[in-house]
Amino acid sequence: MAIKAIIIDDERLARNELKKLLQDHGDIEVIEEAANVDEGIEKIESLNPDLIFLDIQMPGKTGFDLLAEVEKAPKVIFTTAYDEYAIKAFEVNAMDYLLKPIEPKRLTDAIQKLQAEMFKEHVGLNGANRGPLTEYDQVFVKDGERCWFVKLGEIRLFESVGNYAKVFFGTNKPLILKSLNALEERLDDRMFFRANRKHIINLRWIEKIEPYFNGGLILDLKGGEKIEVSRRQTVKFKEMMSL
Question: Superfamily assignment of 3-122 in CATH?
Answer without folding.
Answer: Response regulator (3.40.50.2300)
